[in-house]
Structure formats: C-alpha cells, structure tokens
Design brief:
The chain starts with 10 loop residues before the first helix and ends in an 11-residue tail after the last helix. It has a single domain, classed as Aminopeptidase. Helix 1 runs antiparallel to helix 5 and helix 4 runs antiparallel to helix 5. Helix content is 32%, strand content 20%. The chain is built from 10 helices and 14 strands. By secondary structure, the chain is an alpha+beta fold. InterPro entries: LytR/CpsA/Psr_CW_biosynth, LytR_CpsA_psr. Pfam families: LytR_cpsA_psr (PF03816). This is LCP family protein.
Amino acid sequence: MKRYGRRLAWLAVALAALGAWHAWPRSDGPHAEAHRSHPHAVEPSSAGWTATDPGTTRLAGRETILVLGSDKRPKDARGNADVLLVASLDDTHRRIELLSIPRDTQVAFPDGRYRKINEALAIGGPEETCMLVERLIGLPIDHYAILRFDALVRMVDRIGGLDIEVPRDMDYRTGDQVYGVIHLRKGRHHLNGEQALQFVRYRHDALGDIGRTVRQQAFLVALKDQLLRPQTLPRLPEVAIDAWRMIDTDMSLADLSRLAARAPRYQAYQTVHTTLPGSFHDPDPAIPGDLSYWVVNPIEARYVAERFFSDGEVPARIIQDPRETRTWLPPAARAAQPSDGRSTPA
C-alpha cells in the first residue's frame, strides 16, 4: 500500500472510526451468489489487491482509511467485517469525511460470485476487502485498520467516556458470553466503554443495519470531539500507542505517533458523514440460497462517493425504492432523456 508521509495526520478520525463497528453473531458463512445476473454488477478485474485499483480516481490533499469492525470470536479463524467505514482527512477542504458502507451490500467477488461485502474479510482478508471497496466507490484506499470488542471498550474508557444522545431505549441480549447485554435509556448520557459498545452494536429498530450506521456516525463524531478536547490532546501519544497495540493495521507505530502530534489542526475541520444509498432486498423463497441484501447501483455508488469526498455533498435519500436503485442515472444522463424515458438520439 502506498504511504504518504506528509499527510499521515488523521489520528483523531482514525481512532474515532476504529470504534464504530457492530459485531453480530452470524451463522451463515460464505455462500454461493443467488443473483449471478444482477443488472448492476461490476465484474472483478483481478483476484488480488496489492495497490490502488486502476479504475479508481485519486482526489488530492487527503489520506483515506478503510475501518473494519470484525465479529471474530475466540474459536473463529477469521471474522466477517460487520462494519465498513471509509474515513478521509481532507486537508484541501478542511473536512473529515465518513462514508458508511452497509455490511449487507451485494458486490461481485474476484471468483465471479456475488456475496455480502462483509464476507470479504473472512474470505480474502483486509486486502481483498480494500479491493472490493475501491471498486465499489471508485476511490483509492490508502490504509486499513481492524478493531474488535475489547479494544473499543478500553479505548473509550482510556479517554474518559463519551457524551452521546441515545435516540431511544435500547434493550437486547446478544447471546455473547462477554458484552452480551444491551441496556441503554433514551436521552443524553456520558457513556463508558461498555455502554459505547452497546450503542454501536444495537440494530433492533425499524431500519436495522441502516439505522445502526446513523448511530455509528453519531458515535464517531462524539469520539472525535472527545479526542480533540484540550484536556485529551496531551494524552494522544499514549492513546496512539494503545491503539497500535489493539488494532490490526498496515500502519506503523511511528505513523500513529506522527498523527497524534498533528491532531490539533483538526479541531477546526468540519465533519460530514453519510451512508451509501441503496434499497433493501428481502430473501425470495423461490430462489434457493437467496439472502437479504443492501442493493446499490454501482454507477450511483461512484457518483455519490465522488461528490461526497470532493464537495461534501450528502445524498438526499439513503433508503430507496428498489426500482429507483435499478434505474438510477446521473443528473446529466437524466436531463438527456425525453419525457417518455427514451434516450435522446446523438
């Protein structure tokens, strides 16, 4: 992976983003694709990834990291990535940009099958996950970082907890032997590490995983604000060392230490966040092996990502009707269509 020494300065957002994941017990392993003729599939161009995909476009003045939250348990060889979040420190526009990719997003894997993108970590590791994300959004990933349960708890406790608005009462038993109970009350609270983990894990509301990405983004903003408070800044070098010990990343300790030293500049940066738009696909009982997916239009995914990271533009609607997802066109292409929907002759 490329390293850009003069811009390795995104510790605050990296540490914030590292904490935003949900690790949910899963019984379904890698599965054969149920929709091999998906109309919006992007065919894979290689079976591996060691550098920026040639089909991506680099935007100047930024460093971008893919944050993965793993659901790996002690007996698992590997876990799925139940949260995927693209975090970018944009020095050109003085912004911190956070793009959530729902874990059930359907993508083409290098073997030609279609699966949920969260399975990439278990199948091909962080390198394959980076490759699939790059092809999905059309922008390069510079680094990756993977975090698990106990790391989040220790990290939040180390910085003194977080102030977060809990939007509703949250009660659920996850089935895990450790951190197995979610119990939070509606309102603004100062959460410790275990409570913060409960906040980012909860998904039992009407919008499921999509509603959870909104809460995770709120968590990221709260964590970034706490990291950049005057009383926390002097402790960032220690936090950087802890983070390096707790996460699986392609960054060195020296990289994270430099980020800690440069973190104060980001106090004035605007934070923008959104989720990749798409539509729900419910399993079709007539199709063997069909599963629930978050379906995205690849043309729209790249358009939304480019506008978000270039201009800070957030899509007007995240949850679409399936037909809207299938037929989505960029504004210029829509403008070229006559009222009956047919393309205008050249």
